[in-house]
Predict the 3D structure of the following.
Amino acid sequence: MKRLVSQFLWFVASGFLAAGPSWAAVDIQSWTAPSGARVFFVESHALPMVDVQVDFAAGGALDPADKAGVAALTRALLDGGAGALDEAAISDRLADLGARVGGGADDDRASVSLRTLSSAAQRDAAVDLLRTLLTEPTFPVAVVDRERARTLAGLKEAETRPDSIAARRFSAAIYGSHPYGNDPTQESVARITREDLVAFHQGHYRAPGASVTLVGDIDRGEAARIAQVLTAGLPTGEPPPPLAAPELPAESVIRVAHPSAQAHILAGMPVLARDDPDYFPLLVGNYVLGGGGFVSRLTHEVRERRGLAYSAYSYLHPAQVAGPFQIGLQTKASQADLALGVVNETVRGFLDKGPTAAEVAAAKSNIVNGFGLRLDSNRKILDYVAMIGFYRLPLDWLEVYPKAVPKVTGADIQDAFRRRIDPRHMVTVVVGGTEAQGDTPAPSAPK
Amino acid sequence: MATKQPTRRCGARGWLGIVLMAAGVAWANPYETTLGNGMKVIVKEDRRAPSVVHMVWYKVGAMDEVDGHSGVAHLLEHMMFKGTKKLGPGEFNRQVAAVGGRDNAFTSSDYTAYFQQVPPGELGRMMQLEADRMRNLRWSDEEFHKELEVVKEERRLRTEDKPQALVHEQLEASAFLAHPYRRPIIGWMTDLDAMRPADAWAWYRTWYAPNNATLVVVGDVDHRKVFEQAKREFGGLAPSVLPPRREIGEPEQRGRRESAVRAPAELPYVALAWHVPTVRNLADARDFFALQVLAAVLDGYDGARLNTRLVREQRLAVSAGAGYGGMARGASLFILDGTPTPGHTVAELETALRGEIARIRDQGITEAELARVKAQAMAAEVYKRDSLMGQAMEIGMLEMAGFSWRDEQRFLEGLRAVSAADVQAVAARFFAAEGMTVASLDPLPLAAAKPRAKGPAVRHGGGE
């Protein structure tokens, strides 16, 4: 089967995973394991399988200031050797069991997930292997050296790609010296040693800070046993100090010359926390502006009306503190300024006049009616429940959500956007085209 | 905030997807019927959650295009959202969004498919929308020209600025001389430049008909009710006389073919391809199953041979992979690819990749490897049932390749029956040096790359 070319990127999913929920109430059982880990369990016997995810406050925001990349490398190397097993033995054992380990690290969290068949023999062996990875990683020097070299090669490659360059410049510009802006560089990764990984694991893969989420074909007793087995041997160190919110950046436009066919444009600023009081008005408003895929204003103006881009979007990524609001599009380099003008005009119009009543109704209708579709598989339920657990949201969040959305009004949206999406703090990055390298002063602030 | 992802490669490419597709248990479910106009309807009940996937698959894709018209299948897919006699441009998307759904479409070499995921009560409305645009498409030339620009931007995004995508485009254009898979699905930019509204209309009138379509519904539904709805909404559409399809072969390759792409990048990249069988008849598919296992032994899991030997042990590659589809309307390639570690060359990596095939040819694979591959396939059989979309995709892809959901069990049995000797035999048979096509990325330092108006330079040649 050959590759597919689809009509539209599914950025809506990423924007909304940030948010979503369900109709059929998800029954989340929750307790604290003897290890101190918080446990979240959804029982489902429809399929003979179990999904487990363990989340730690061990994301990139906790990287040592001069060693950005430690969190990601620590997470990536949990299966580079653990207990008495080398990486080959770990890979082979997982494959023999038909089990899969996934996860990764973002700015806030490091996640390790396991999918296994639920028959006792396979399940217990897979859980025991996961326990070994979590509690006894050995970070062999040879593996660390190799993976550091591969990471460096990947970073060098990324520095040639317009999309990566744009993302990196955007992140650095909106977060400045805040930990969210401390992305790995060749210099920072080159400094990382095995000892850094050992220390990071010891300091941040803590039982009391861990959340364990289980979904699938086990009963509560078994879930409790698994959660305790996985976390009993974890370190018990002190929790990290709370993360401060970033200062808002000054408005700026950053232009980077690049030989690419397309200019990659990003614009935005830090905005949304997981427990943000403006969460629902911003969510519904962003659907109208650029989160709603084909039916959003940005797609309409940039793509449908003018044929300027394949993808034009805005998303809000909720994080522990002030995750980004980001507008993005890619267009033929020669028309970058034209497209940017359309984006600015669209945002200005939205801030000035707010959404129409019809737009608000359509947004609420989609979000509320489509609620159940976001929780129609164990995998999706796992993602949401793990997020609720990690960010300590109320256990009834999935029930509150569809009740909160219909209450949002156009005035609420306009008010929240005007307060939170302030053009005086918007950073714009344009990578591509022939413009001279370097930052240029911002044009006078719209509105 | 850039998401900080570990840079290690996780899991396999290609193969597991095939296993997902190639394995299955026989149930009373799914259910199948054919409407009077020839449209096939397949329903799989999965009542776990109030959600349903609705897909219409047309058995027409890029392989049905002719030279000079590459990209028309995909462009028409875009135009299917531009209105009908009843609906204005974009109205289709708005109606799906209003009921809480999401929708999209995709075009491959072999087929074009449209789908919506909605609450079950909205299924009938989705059928009305699809039936309407199957027969009543309407849009202006102006809409066409705007959307053509969108598609060109899509090509720039997916191909022109993605060096590895350019390499794969070259690989297929070189490996196939006669077979239509030599043309890119999204189309050559020069063909897109020449595209006219009449080309898209001709495509639509020729291929969009109920007797060239398969309806697949998976989710919280009663199949009897879905059959009734389908009959009501699609049953009245008149069938078309479809053009005869000619099976296009590929002449035997008589020597190494090589091409290179020079584009802005840091690391080189190389892909190697050999012509291998496509599965046609499950009673005679031993090579197909053995090649599936070969791909999985090479790249089916983290500890598979290419990652273990070339990335982990020899440190010759930043990444290395193997891919074989084998289930398609057209011809198949077995592909090995990889990025050499800084300090190593594409030539070294090519030698090492071919060396792994030679090792299996000479020494075979172990029983442990074989058992591991089969264990993963059995587990995947369970995991795939967690996704409505995945289940609908599997049914549609089997249909488009000339098989049926009824064949799922036979695919699984075929895989189970593979022996180590079978794998050694295909490694010996299909990987001759004179049948190989190579495409590589020759990195152009960013400082040397001038912003350009046209596509990147492409060098093309035979031999070294």
Chain A has a mean pLDDT of 91. DSSP finds 16 helices and 15 strands in chain A. Chain A has two domains: 2-231, 252-379+394-439.
